[in-house]
Amino acid sequence: MSGMLNELLKHKIVAILRGIENDKADDTARALLEGGIRMMEITMNTDGAAAMINRWRERFDGEAYVGAGTVIDLDTAKLAVQAGAQFLISPNLDEEVIAFGLERGISVWPGVMTPTEIVKAMKAGAEAVKLFPMGTLGINYLKEIRGPLKEVPILATGGVDLDNIAEYFRSGANGVGLGSKLVHMEWVKDGQFLKVAERARAFTHAVSQLS
């Protein structure tokens, strides 16, 4: 088990930052840290994503683990790793990306939906998978997947909110990916970083209560 998977299993939440504006990014990351979030993913389809990853690695070294999201192919993976991404998350399963991560000792958590894709990802060397889109699949789908596939670490992404996060974990999630339910972009645009920190604290508290 890699150090990064250990961190995922320990902290349980990955903050997903998609489309964040460069001049608001650092204050947002600091607010998330204040709220107890330790794992942050900047999606590669965000303007200036590579530069932000690079800056955060330096600025929040030792405080946050910074990864890249929406890593849909090998070229994107190379850009992300060059920028300093500590983990790569995809909405899709691309075995070239997994192989690239393995070569460089970078954790890759590919997006999967079906049991076939989950097994394929594990065979290709992924140490965990991102079950997506959970908002559409629903918690019962996760429970059913867990019947035959007990050992696979699953990062459930989509549909998670404060009122159902505990149920996600009871149903078999090992971690959750949180986007707009965690980081309200309206708050970010308005510079309401205290609200971002409070929201983060509410989620980290909910996760700390899990048995």
Structure description:
The chain has helices spanning 3-11, 22-34, 49-59, 74-83, 95-104, 115-124, 134-137, 139-146, 165-170, 185-189, 193-208; strands spanning 13-17, 39-43, 65-69, 87-89, 107-109, 111-112, 129-131, 154-157, 175-178. The chain is an alpha/beta fold and 211 residues long. The chain has a single domain (3-209), classed as TIM Barrel, CATH 3.20.20.70. Helix 2 packs across helix 11 (193-208). It starts with a helix and ends with a helix.
Keywords for this entry:
single chain, alpha/beta, TIM Barrel, 7-stranded parallel sheet, 11 helices, EC 4.1.3.16, lyase, 2-dehydro-3-deoxy-phosphogluconate aldolase activity, Aldlse_KDPG_KHG
Lay out the secondary structure.
Blueprint: H1 3-11, E1 13-17, H2 22-34, E2 39-43, H3 49-59, E3 65-69, H4 74-83, E4 87-89, H5 95-104, E5 107-109, E6 111-112, H6 115-124, E7 129-131, H7 134-137, H8 139-146, E8 154-157, H9 165-170, E9 175-178, H10 185-189, H11 193-208
Parallel strand pairs: 1-2, 1-9, 2-3, 4-5, 6-7, 7-8, 8-9
Helix pairs in contact: 2-11, 3-4
What structural class do you assign from the helix and strand content? Answer: alpha/beta
Domain count = 1
Low-confidence stretches: none
Mean pLDDT: 97
Fraction in beta strands? 15-25%
Percent of residues in helices comes to 40-55%
Rg, nearest Å: 16 Å
Q: Class in CATH?
A: Alpha Beta
Protein name: Bifunctional 4-hydroxy-2-oxoglutarate aldolase/2-dehydro-3-deoxy-phosphogluconate aldolase
Pfam families: Aldolase (PF01081)
EC number: 4.1.2.14, 4.1.3.16
Enzyme class: lyase
